[in-house]
Amino acid sequence: DVTEIEEKEAQAKEEEQIMKEQELSNLLHEKRYLKALGLAISLDRPHTVLMVIKAILKEPEGRKHLQENIVRLRKDQKEAVLAFLVTWNTNSRNCHEAQAVMETLLKHEAPDTLLQFSGIKSAVESLLPYT
């Protein structure tokens, strides 16, 4: 019978999720935005990533801090943010943050690098009508 083992695994995953949520909350409170972005991306939480970006932009010199943080993300994290911002851009409440991230990616990534992102073609096609 593997029911007990499966229940323990599910409980362990739930506990790990709660710990990560608490860590994310602490990072935001401490204004450690790069780590908060990385954790929110790894948890696959587009709304949380958006909240982190909004928090960064509320800071004095927010655009500069946003650029510094986005540039320091790994390629796979940038790809995830690109996928998230396609959705954000369709909503007028979130389009400014999406455009700020897009501007950073376009300014700091070489065109050849952007072309290597997974899903770049569909992202561009989805962004064009709203941008």
Keyword list:
single chain; 131 residues; mainly alpha; 8 helices; 78% helix
Can you describe this structure?
It is found in: Nucleus, Nucleolus. Keywords: Nucleus, Repeat, WD repeat. GO terms for molecular function: U3 snoRNA binding. Its main location: nucleus. It comes from Xiphorhynchus elegans. This protein is mainly alpha-helical. The chain has one domain. It is 78% helix and 0% strand. The protein contains eight helices and no strands. Helix 4 packs across helix 6, helix 5 packs antiparallel against helix 6 and helix 5 packs parallel to helix 8. The termini are far apart. The mean pLDDT is 91.
Order of helices and strands: HHHHHHHH
Low-confidence stretches: none
Please give the number of β-strands.
0
Helix content: over 70%
Sheet of most strands? none
Number of DSSP helical runs:
8
- Shape designation: globular
* Percent of sequence in beta strands: under 5%
Mean pLDDT: 91
Number of domains: 1
Class computed from helices, strands and strand pairing? mainly alpha
End-to-end CA span: 55 Å
Q: Could you tell me the radius of gyration in angstroms?
A: 17 Å
